[in-house]
Amino acid sequence: MIVDRIQNGKAYPMGKAWQLAFEFLLSLKPDAEEKKYHVQGDDIFALVTSYETRPPDTAVLETHRKYLDIQTVITGGEGIAWFPKDELIIKQPYDESKDVEFYHHPNSSFARMNIFPGIFVALFPHDAHMPSLMLGNTPECVKKVVVKVNVNLLITS
Q: Which residues span the domain enclosing 147?
């Protein structure tokens, strides 16, 4: 997991696919249309959506195998909880067509970060994550972008 400012994203030496993802993020405006954006075909794409944040007991805990998630909010703010994948119990086995595996909520502690416009979280296949969390006790409408990058395109060594 990486948490940083979007403006620093291109400083990470993970290759051209990573660079393209951050070029897209830097070009995105608050009035961006809610839709799927193809940055580089099915290898790099972005999903812009709006929704209300929620309490942890109704949020989903997930991982992905094929794609790295680079998540940020365009408007509003939300929490994202992080868990080590290898310590979780699978709730719904991996669905290759949707590139997602779901987990039961653990009783153990976790790391949590709050993201706002200008801050990103990069979540790798070993990073179980629970996005869409309320920052306080009241749901908030957020507009969010998730850039999906095929992990085979990343330079990680």
A: 2-152
Cβ atoms of residues 98 and 60 within 8 Å: no
Structural domain total, the chain: 1
pTM over the 0.85 mark: yes
Per the structure block, which two tokens stand in for 22?
Answer: 């951050």
The answer to whether the Cα torsion of 112, 153, 103, 99 is positive or negative is positive
Which residue in 40, 152, 51, 141 sits closest to 99, CA to CA? Answer: 152
Residue 1: CB partners within 8 Å, gap ≥ 6? 82, 111, 121, 122, 123, 124, 127, 129
**Residues 35 and 15: beta-carbon distance below 8 Å:** no
Residue range 35-62: mean pLDDT, rounded: 96
Q: Is residue 117 part of a domain?
A: yes
In this structure, is the dihedral angle defined by the CA atoms of residues 98, 100, 103 and 109, taken in order, positive or negative? negative
